[in-house]
Amino acid sequence: xxxxxxQRGRIRVVxxxxxxxxxxxxxxYKTAGGSGIxxxxxxxxxxxxxxxxxSSTYIRLSLSxxxx
Length: 68
Known about the structure:
Elements: E1 8-14, E2 29-30, E3 46-55, E4 58-67
Parallel strand pairs: 2-4
Antiparallel strand pairs: 1-3, 3-4
């Protein structure tokens, strides 16, 4: 909520000790090829999601997976 055009950031996502958690996105989030976000599923895996607010209906996402 309260996004502003030009706002950018990074979200760190860490799987819990079980792993295999998923992420469901609202339709305003857009990804390359429209394929969505598939997180690493290994227990304790760390992924980063970078976002860029283009408009109130378009937030661009990119995923960087499996950081150790």
